[in-house]
Specification:
With about 375 residues, the protein is an alpha+beta fold. It has 15 helices and 13 strands.
């Protein structure tokens, strides 16, 4: 599309938990993922609907979570009230060890945990298991008399992963080397048994700094809705609707408003609105395929796809990058106009491709006329 979508402008490339545990370390993390109502925009956004469905339907209805798994020297069973005593004894034997290796805080475990607290944890984890919201397991000795550790399977609170898995072992088991053995076994068990494509093991397969830098999934859902609203506003060709969404995108704002004006002048018509989707860094990509007068003037029969990449911070758009899959003939036509129709570049297209562009809409209309002239000239190589 226009040079607006390819030329850097002020740094903008505009061509332009499992932390939850029965043995619960963090009350905030202990909270079950909220049941969310899909925003109205979800009908226009399959990716947004899929993200909400992923959180509210953690595992398929056809999948039955295992309730007894036997390993080499241990067995794994769901946590529940019948295990309250040995579970309590296990984590209370390793308070400092777990605070340093599992929770990264002093919130859990701590010396003040009561028997009532422990039972509440057990009944809560059992209810979550039964409701298919999360799955907390005790790792027991083969005879079931001692707990060696715990394993937790939860929906991922970060995008890019189907699930988050965490585990701990007691200090005595850690010193004996059981932590590495259990982690290796859990990875195989999750891969072979559970219906996940991508599983996060924070603090292990992904270090804590990288994990913490990822956006939270809840915010991703909100950002997806905002991204869809941005697309609505852009193609409404109403700058007063678009500008407020760019209030925090100071380096991108003018370039995007100029591009909107160009798109209006170029008579952009959406032929396929691809769903916005978040990559694993939280950047949201929205591919939009359009017909427009400048390309139609070249008689190639090609519909170009513009992809908007939106970066968010604290729920606000802070940067917008765009890219297009323009054909080479598009750029050839632009250079022909620059060479053969200097009045276009010195008139309506003065400042073309920069924030200082005087009239992007008039420029698009003039450039369309220039492309028609190119297509009628002897320099035109043909639509192929």
């Amino acid at each position: 599309m226009p040079e607006y979508t390819h030329k850097p402008i002020h740094g903008l490339t505009l061509a332009t938990t499992l932390l939850i545990a029965a043995c619960t370390p963090d009350p905030e993390a202990q909270r079950s993922p909220p049941k969310m109502e899909a925003p109205a925009i979800a009908e226009a956004s399959p990716a947004l609907s899929a993200e909400i469905a992923r959180q509210t339907n953690f595992i398929p209805d056809s999948f039955e979570p295992p309730t007894l798994i036997e390993g080499n020297g241990f067995k794994v069973v769901p946590l529940g009230p019948e295990l309250v005593d040995i579970d309590f004894a296990a984590y209370m034997s390793s308070i400092e060890h777990l605070q340093q290796t599992f929770t990264r805080s002093t919130n859990w475990p701590h010396a003040g945990i009561t028997a009532e607290d422990a039972m509440l944890d057990m009944t809560t984890e059992q209810a979550r298991f039964q409701n298919r919201e999360s799955f907390a397991y005790a790792v027991l000795t083969p005879d079931g008399t001692q707990e060696r550790g715990c394993v937790y399977v939860y929906p991922s609170p970060r995008p890019g992963y189907d699930a988050m898995v965490r585990l701990w072992v007691t200090k005595a088991e850690y010193d004996a080397g059981f932590d590495g053995e259990l982690y290796s076994w859990v990875q195989g068990w999750i891969a072979d048994t559970w219906p996940f494509h991508s599983v996060a093991y924070p603090g292990r397969a992904i270090d804590w700094a990288a994990w913490d830098s990822l956006p939270e999934t809840g915010s991703t859902i909100k950002n997806l809705a905002t991204a869809e609203t941005f697309i609505d506003a852009f193609y409404s060709f109403d700058p007063e609707s678009l500008a407020p969404l760019l209030g925090q995108a100071t380096e991108s704002k003018q370039g995007i408003l100029n591009y909107q004006a160009w798109a209006e002048g170029g008579n952009y018509r959406i032929v396929n609105r691809g769903p916005c989707s978040a990559d694993e860094t939280g950047v949201i990509h929205c591919p939009i395929t359009v017909q427009d007068d400048p390309v139609l003037a070249l008689k190639t029969g090609f519909d170009v796809t513009d992809t908007f990449a939106l970066t968010f911070a604290k729920g606000a758009i802070v940067q917008v990058d765009t890219s297009s899959n323009d054909q080479p003939i598009y750029y050839q036509a632009r250079e022909w106009v620059k060479t053969n129709m200097p009045e276009v570049m010195e008139g309506p297209c003065k400042g073309f491709g920069t924030d200082a562009a005087e009239s992007p809409g008039d420029c698009a209309r003039a450039m369309t006329a220039g492309y028609r002239a190119f297509a009628a000239s002897e320099d035109y190589p043909g639509p192929g």
